[in-house]
Amino acid sequence: ASVLADRIKNPEARIDALANLARAFAQKSNATEVRLAIARIQVEIDRIASVDLQAKLWIQIGRSLAEFGIENEPANSINRVTHTLEDEDDPLVKSQVLARLGAAYVADGDRAEGKRRFDEALNHASQISDLGRRIIAFARMAPRYHDARNTTLAQKILTDAGRLAVERLDVGGRARAFAEIVLAQAYIGDFDG
């Protein structure tokens, strides 16, 4: 089965296949094979260039493995996400990943840590000097607030981002900002925007 997973070209699909293998091994109480599958997952995720996509995948994998009783999950996966931030300098990327962590902590019942991570995300996004990139950072955080069941704040962020884009960005910057805003609105189901 592991050899078949190697034939899958799409990295996300390959990682999902490896996670399915880990779950199957966990059901059979084969701890060695579970550890090997998780090691393969780590290698595959590390190959992905997008730090935010890495974070998304680790959080999904951690939750999935936890459902099958794999020890120290999702904590190990969340720790991996936290460690990816140590080498990241871009405040836009940091804000995305921190917001994703905030939503994960809220979903796991740790509202205080979730709020702390969301506050860090807002802080990093606020430090972006280029207004267009700052608007994009906030637009990318809005779906994570929605994930944390704070739909009112998610909608307010997108409304404010849209207003700022219209009032203060040139045509090109406005187009880039609205591309992100529309994606976020679709994610949270705000089709009236």
Record keyword descriptors for this entry.
single chain; 193 residues; mainly alpha; 10 helices; elongated
Question: Would you summarize the structure shown here?
Answer:
This protein has 193 residues and is mostly helical. The chain is built from ten helices and no strands. It has helices at residues 2-6, 11-27, 31-46, 51-67, 75-85, 91-107, 111-126, 131-147, 151-168, 171-188.
| Biggest β-sheet strands, sense, barrel | none
Provide the residue-averaged pLDDT: 92
Overall geometry comes to: elongated
- Kindly state the percentage of residues in helix: over 70%
Order of helices and strands: HHHHHHHHHH
Measured distance between first and last alpha carbons? 46 Å
Global structural class: mainly alpha
**Count the strands?**
0
Q: Stretches where pLDDT falls below 50 for ≥5 residues?
A: none
Q: How many helices?
A: 10
Strand content: under 5%
C-alpha-based Rg, rounded: 18 Å
